[in-house]
# Entry
Amino acid sequence: MTITITAFDRSPDGGKGLARDTRVRWALEEAGLPYEIRLLSFQAMKEPAHLRLHPFGQIPTYEEGDLALFETGAIIFHIAEHHTGLLPSEANARARAITWMFAALNTVEPVILELATVRLLERDKPWSAERMPLVQERVRDRLHQLSNYLGDAEWLDGAFSAADLVMVSVLLRLRPSGMLDTFPSLAAYVARGEARPAYPRAFAAQWAVNAPKPD
# Structure
């Protein structure tokens, strides 16, 4: 059965790999699975056909036969459950990897998204200058905690897993702010994720859609 995912026809980040379909592309590339892309405009994302797949009108979605999923965590977990290489086979290690997937999405990403909101969407508000240091401090607290846990380890828990794929994808959202550079162990961790052969393939696929077209 053909796997089809949805993505922006023009990503708000200009193809820098921060749109969430990149995470799913990466997981599919790690698993060695072919897939097709259905590109959507912002208008099409709010139309009934897409809302039947994603009730909140976002991307990506995942379709395989009669299965339709939304939310990147759920999609990546599904891919990892059904294809070797993204979750450990040992039960306890598998449970820990799943825990770290939840931690990346529920504990680390929200404060990073809050920072992006202040920087990009609220910068013209009169209270933005006062709010920014508070949000930055919350991000730094999370990064300190994650950096202390990671220490000198290569990955979060033994071998690379879907947990690292999701966590690296989340941390990449910090790159425009420069905050990641102040945590060398985390910057190196992200660089290791980007160096995996599957990541450049996923990035290139997204960039191909969004790269500036020659005149």
Summary: The radius of gyration is 18 Å. The chain has a mean pLDDT of 91. The chain has two domains: 3-85+199-210, 91-196. The longest helix spans residues 91-121.
